[in-house]
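Dear Dr. H.,

I hope your travels went smoothly. While you were away I took the liberty of generating a structure for the chain from your last submission, since the lab meeting agenda had it listed for discussion. I wanted you to have the full record in hand beforehand rather than looking at slides cold. The sequence, exactly as received, is reproduced here:
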Amino acid sequence: MSAALRFERAAVRLGGRVVWSGVDLEVEQGEFVAVLGPNGAGKSTLLKALLGLVPLSHGAVSVFGHPVGRGNADVGYLPQRRRFDPDLRIRAVDLVRLGLDGARWGLSLPSAAKQRRVAEIIELVGATPYQDRAIGELSGGEQQRVLLAQALVSGARMLMLDEPLDSLDLNNQQAISELIRGICKSQGVTVLLVAHDVNPILPFIDRVVYVAGGHVPCGLPDEVITTDTLTRLYGAPVEVLRASDGRLVVVGQYEPVSHHADGH
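The corresponding predicted structure, in token form, is as follows:
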């Protein structure tokens, strides 16, 4: 079985600036991986390189053993989004159906097979009770479940989620993270999730990719989030402390990151 994704000595240059370089990264199918790092470090660029939206300046990148390209049906992508307009009247079920018919002009009559597929995916993400409500009326957590269904409905084998938890409260962050973990396990879907705070997702992720200082190391949280590793990445003194309750706390950088290390 080929890796879900692979970077080999990869680099990206934008506007004459090297965003990151020398990236050797492999993610296995069915893994749930957090992509962490400060603003502007190149986290979203990493996802866009995998989508074929940003070209590499050096090296190679592949998804499921094939070169990357736009419009890959194996990959579902959720860009950064805060909330839908409260006045948006499209039903949740119709938004999910756009994941199947969105590339077509006009309205299409759903076939029985499409209706079954939409219903199955909506049930998978737990959105059946509110599938007929307008998307603008739903809570942030409910909207994220609907968007996950839309990304999955066409049969995507990989999800790339750009800060899907950012506007949610802690309970919804944990609930969505648990849902994603379940999808990885039950459906074999690979997930890359960009986040600022690893706290809500730590109990559910397999590995961490940390983007900083032009480098992209990957490993278990306790392997990546260490004093030595982060000091080297930032090129400045960074200290990782363990609090009395077991949390790891990163200090000495512009955007502190903390997480619970229990179980890892």
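Two observations you may find useful: The longest strand covers residues 17-27. The radius of gyration is 19 Å.

With kind regards,
E. W.
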